[in-house]
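Pipeline run #58 for the internal structure catalog. This entry was flagged by the ingest filter as a single-chain record with no existing model, so it goes straight to prediction. Upstream metadata was stripped on purpose; only the residue string is passed forward. Reviewer on rotation: M.T. Logging verbosity set to normal.
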Amino acid sequence: MCCTCRPLPTPAEDAAITAAALADPDAVPFTEAEWEQAKPLVRRGRPLGSGTKTQVTLRLDVEVLARFKATGDGWQTRINDALKSWVQTHA
């Protein structure tokens, strides 16, 4: 039976479920202070950036892009590092 076909518990059933959960010594509800301190264990999605980068569109030679992509994940960071190194040596 799917979740949309399953009937909701009656108020009496809901009260019984809540009472059973509250009576379980291993299932102590969080206090408001604990909820304030709660943080997700794993952040989903892209890692947070430095906040100092700007998104651009850049055309690169096919060979250059293929060479960086062949080194695996993080190729965009490695391109950035290579350009940063060039800027530092040509300042």
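catalog note: Residues 46 and 78 are 17 Å apart (CA to CA).
catalog note: DSSP finds four helices and no strands in the chain.
status: ready for reviewer M.T.
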